[in-house]
Homoserine O-acetyltransferase
Amino acid sequence: MSDTLAKQLHLPRPYRLEGGDLLPEVTIAYHTFGTLAPSGDNVIWVFHALTANSNPVEWWPGLVGEGFLFDPATHFIVCANILGSCYGTTGPASVNPATGERYGMDFPEITIGDIVGLHQELKHHLGIEKIRCGIGGSMGGQQLLEWAIREPQLFDLIIPIATNAQHSAWGIAFNTAQRMALEADPTLNSKNPDAGHKGLEAARAIGMLSYRNQETYNKTQTDQDDRVGGFSADSYQRYQGVKLSRRFNPHAYYSLSKTMDSHNVGRNRNSVELALRQIESNVLAISISSDLLFPPQEQELIARSCRHGKYATIDSLYGHDGFLIETEKLTGIIQSFLELTV
């Protein structure tokens, strides 16, 4: 049996953030699929990326769900919506109990560590003592690495995909450009539910350039005639902006992009490499060969720095988004890894 609706865990006590701010209370939205085995050894924890929700069956079909590699018939699958998002967990779109208004741009800055702290709260709530496998791509992989360092013996296996141990200057520059697009929207600082949506459309169009690559666009958006306007690439960018704006909160996008920028597992741990050496899990770091945003050398560093690290790469036309699209290729690589580490 699987849960189709998100559950919620409410923490009525204050939650202190890494930067020192205090959230008066926090709600965590999460999904579970399958049943926790009496031995507790069948947990798969899935970590979602920037704009996803807590239902990986919805956004990672082909990898998670009935009949796929991570199947609720045999696994207890957990995924939590991250702090700062807008799909049920406390974030900028939530009401600040101290003011009775939405947080909006007043939502405090959070780190990947703050997100992981709530994952730990949920783990305790669910009675989980061991996680067979943690898996996540992009910002999801950042959470996974941070948690595996905090609790070195918690995960048997971890599979960080198309991610990094410290967000790069290149990634920060892309996120900054997207925030500048949001800041150019004069409604952004309003508490109105419609605030910032035109800015989000522009920000997403910028982001798409980093999620794909030139080859992707040339293959899928090149016009086969002699037109002088109304280009396919133009309409595609606008469509992607509107599509995200209809489902995501601009303030959450702004906040979480800053959270991603702050990612650095080496902070207060002497170095990235020394931090990764603390992980005791078996590690399979997977790259996408055409990924411009999280290039393969970042996953190679993870595999090289972890004591039990392995590295694999998949070819894809789709750049960074390949981690969501190439589920058949991922399944083959991950299945072999799982069989080797039984």
